[in-house]
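Minutes, project check-in
Item: structure for the 556-residue chain
Input as provided by the requester:
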Amino acid sequence: MRKFYVAVCAVILSLSGMVSAQDLTQGKISGNLQLDAQVYRPDSAIGAFEVSERMLMNSFANIHYSLGSFNAGLRFESYLNPIQGFDKRYKGTGVPFWFASWEKESFAITVGHFYEQFGSGMALRSYEERNLGYDNAIKGARVIFRPYQGIVLKALIGNQRFFWESGPGIVRGIDGDFALNDIFKETTGLPRVTIGGSFVSKFEPSSQILVGENGDELLILPENVAAMSGRVNVNHKGFNVEGEYVYKYNDPSAVNNFIYKNGQSLLVQASYSTKGLGVILSGKVTDNMSFKSKRTEKGNVLDINYLPALTRQHAYTLSAMYPYATQPNGEFAIQSQVNYKIPKGSMLGGKYGIDIAVNFSRITELSRKPVNATTPIGEGGTLGYKTDFFKMSDSPYFQDFNIELQHKFNSDFKALVSWVNLKYNIDVIEGHTGDPMVNANILILDATYKFSKMNAVKGEFQHLSTKQDKGNWVQGMLEFTFAPTWFVTVVDQYNYGNDDKDRRFHFPTVAVGYTQNSNRLQIGYGKQREGIICVGGVCRNVPASNGLTITLTSSF
């Protein structure tokens, strides 16, 4: 580990030599830190079992230095030990992320760790989502070249972060964006058009994978796997249309049960906006598009690409109880949203107007057929199956129809009401058995009243009604704010609809927070139900817990 730190310092110091003509003390240092700790108490009734360490902690600190066109930074992380729900392979302390970059004329060069996205991310997206314990940073080198106005070219190579190590696969990619209006210049009044394309490949040494009825068939695995994409974006006045298509060569892996079928994905989005009105329509078809730099891994690690979920990301607890997890082996998704503002001063809108949002999404299985009559769909070592790429199956994975209204009654009082109708295939998304489809209706009421410029109270009422899974839930919340420093929150969830009356539990929580400038401390005590958290279709399980939570954030 000492050799690693020496190497990091050597790289940063050698790169800083490029700005030796300037005084390094004139540079700017900035950063931020966060600490999340939980003290656990057992509560076997809700499934919160004893934790041997009693206290678990996740923490990180970013330090960034900039001087002119030179930038360098690192991130220190410590998981002692990882909070429940995070992968235990994060256990430890160290510097898993460091970088140095500089720009000169039309070039920008980065060495070390970096995040990158090509187009929508379906060919390549490297990013971090701390709440999910997700980080697939690339360690290597990246060059961005802008040879002419409206043209951006990128090239990169490296390995992905794999907890405290690097994954075995080498990721290589090139990408180009061409803004035609900027290139040809004389396009006044014409639609703005941007086209782009990507080529991404991975190299992973072959490994021994056995399949077949008796587990005695050795697969010949491709060591190089490529994905190609093309995209276009057209914008004119209030209209915008964009689409991207990705094609990936056969990539047998644990996710697709080691089949040799090629993968593909198509994403199309259209939108229109004008004063008081916005409309968005989206469609996505995905077939066998898991793309990892280690073929034997499952879950949220070593993903080269990103498959966006065409669903609304609900912010309220009960409407987010059944979030959708993207199905990389195949899904057909559609989504639409209309935002409308009833005008201010109208009979219905009153002084401030009313904001209305209507959203609908539906995701189903792709229509699939066996390659031949004697081969089961998805059998390892075969082509897997045939797909009708533009045909929905009758088997729904997820459906969400929701309406939300927000209205400001006066300068002191505003309120929100929302209704959500949800269909959720718990067998497919969570791997549970039993009744596969959860049908739920959720009602949300949210109101805030300001007593003065410094003091306010916020109240929430949420109700989830379903006959499946654990039945009905109700939640109430009150939050008192004493600006600019203090807030107090009291929350309780109750699973009153559980068929087993002995399994009907309250999940109360009390939290107090203090804010001073860029520092924020929150301490809470209570119970957390078991469930899953999803962001953009990527999810992690959260086990039931009972105890004290501490969160500290700061920036400088």
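Outcome recorded: The chain has a mean pLDDT of 90.
No further action items on this chain.
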